[in-house]
Amino acid sequence: MSSLFDVGLSALDASQSVLNLIGNNLANANTPGYHRQVADLTEADPTQIGNVSVGSGVQISDTRRQIDNLLETALTNQTFALADTSAQLSTVQQVQTDLNPSSGSIQDQIEQFFNDVNTLATQPSDTTQRTVVVNDAHNLADAFNSLSSSLDQIQSGLDTQLNSSVSDINSLAKRIAQLNDKIQRAYGNGNPPNDLLDQRDQLVNQLAGDINVQAIPANLNQVNILAGGVPIVIGNQSQSLQYSIASGNQGQVSVAGSSTPMSVTGGQAGGLLAVRNGTLQNVQSQLDTLAGTLAQEVDNAQATGLGLSGPSTFLSGTRGVTNLNVPLDRAGLAFPPQGGTLYVSVTDLSTGTRTLTPVSIDPSTQSLNDVAAALSAVPNIQAVTDSQTGTLQVLAKPGYAFDFAGRLPSAPDTSGYTGTATPQVGGQYTGTNNDTYTFQVAGSGTVGSTSGLQLQVKNSSGSLITTLNIGQGYTAGTPLTVANGITVQLASGTVNDGDTFSTPVVAQPDTAGILTALGLGTFFTGSKASDIAVQPALLNNPGLLAASRNGDSGDNSNLTRLAALQTQPLLANGTQTFSQGYDAITGNVATQVQALTNQQTSQQALGQQLQTQQQSVSGIDTNEELVNLMNFQQAFQVASEYIGSVNTTLQSLVQIIQPSIA
After folding, report:
1. What is the extent of the structural domain holding 155?
2. Scanning 207, 213, 458, 581, which has the fewest C-beta atoms within 10 Å of its C-beta?
3. Rounded-to-10 torsion of CA 508, 509, 512, 514
């Protein structure tokens, strides 16, 4: 008889368990990561009565989660892909905002500077306009400094975020390992730990938001987790990661205690690393190149020109070497010099006599001390080095001054000349290449009287530039046009056939770039966006702005050369001007923002589709659950009624049997 009650009780137990399960589903209808649970009902093992097998009711064989593992994997992959893109987009948008402020961008400052240089060129001695130009340069340098500082702050913020992200990864890995242990114990005790499995899967998805992960199934429904190809969860054990800054200012994630970087390509950490080590450093590098090239070119023009006060009696370099005695190409200069020539003009202030001396520069063999010695060999100047700062100072002897404008010497070299008619070469050289002009007399006689007397002019390669009449018809002392702004004149007297005199003509007084490299007489100090600044002496005295090449107050030839830099393609292998270079930086960032925005939109749409599919499999339909609830409520009632009927029947049987026994 007891089997009759067992059947009913099994129905009650099964119905009660399913009702509990339905209640749990309804309670977690909005719980992130929860998967709908269903009970598998099967017949209980029959009872054998003699030769008859009698059913013993119903039992729950299993309680399962409704889950599609392939879909779950796709969602996990989508999670770290979207987190990667979103992290990159957020940071690159910050960079874009800094590059394009509401007013006063670096590009605007560049244009303003060169426009005001052009204005000054119309009145090169105007002290007010000189102040405007110097202040423009100061504002431009400040803009570079400010933007560089902002980029550094973004980088520092990324480092903070990456440290936090790695801490989250370690915490999540530890919790997953702990859940693995609980899940293993539950299965060992024969209890399906569906809720624990949901909790663990939710943690795995959270982990995917931080880093690219791969979940590998293990025994007893445990999972091993690989992050960046490195195991961080094995069974119930987890391995910690660390964030650090490696050589080359590269951020990296590695196993704690190891210096070997992991391949982190997804999740928030992957996105932040991609921007920090890629986009951000590229922008900073391009910005440094722009600032450095601008400083280098402007410095070269400033150092080889003349201010209102003319040549200098003292200059102190602002860019130092790391060692006074090693060759310059290994001395740590931001703007390394190259092999070339520096032309030094020295003026006797009492007579106005000027000499021009070439100094050879070879950075592969010469140290700063060697350069100082070479300059000191030029008559009437001295160069000394400062061991504390690694810089060079140049000073003139009393009564003398020097410059590097490459001006013609007061008198040509007459070592091959025997005549009595004194030659003089003048003008301002406008050629593009450094050269030496040699003047050779053809014929002998008296200047301005002898018929057919000529002066042939040749360049350093021996090519004839022009032939000038200095005989009959020429007025002694009258300047004759040679070429490229150069003139020549001969005083009264005689000349002899074959006599020669020569003079150097200089377009580029510093072909080695040594003045810019050492910061001698330059416009700027520093060499990159973070430290570029206008020379303090120039800020205090705009009269030092080198407008001239010949020293005349009305000469604007150096300003013209400086203004020409605005349209010269000096960046990107000679394809971009300064403004175009900045445009390229901002354009590249804008393109990246647009690409990441499109990518994020696409990934979000795909993620929504996967979420919808996942909900169709694992989500809770409250209407369906309520229908199931009513069904099993009825089943519970029916089982109760069955037990009541069995009980009534048994009582009736007892009443029938008792009188017979009596």
Report:
1. 95-288
2. 458
3. -130
